Amino acid sequence: MSKVYNFKEFVEKYGVQNKHYMEELYATLKTLSDFYDNIEGHMINLAVRDKWKEWNETMKEGDIFNFSTDMLANTGDKNVNNLFLLWENIYNTIEIVSKENKIEFEGKI
Q1: 4 partner at 20 to 30 Å CA-CA among 58, 72, 76, 96?
Q2: Which pLDDT belongs to residue 109?
Q3: Which residues contact 42 (CB under 8 A, 6 or more apart)?
Q4: Closest to 4 in 3D by CA, of 108, 90, 87, 86
Q5: 3-state class of 11 per DSSP?
Q6: pTM of this structure
Q7: Do residues 91 and 72 touch, judged by C-beta distance below 8 A?
């Protein structure tokens, strides 16, 4: 998840005294962003070890495959389904907090 955070606009709007708050908010969003990416990988790993195992065994080492959101939402694995709900909530939280604070994202999210 690539991101660009607009601190200048925040400091101009709210003042320098809030700079430390914004830095902490930035760090929080970065942590959430990294966690979001990690959960995606874990969902895929779980799926290919169970529900997608037969399909995975047909893939050759080095093959590249892009998993869609719909695929992850419909693995048929209850644990992946629960992780998917968390993954969506992290995404939504990042979107809400970034919009409310005029923090701009570029890239995947």
Answers
A1: 72
A2: 47
A3: 83
A4: 108
A5: helix
A6: 0.72
A7: no
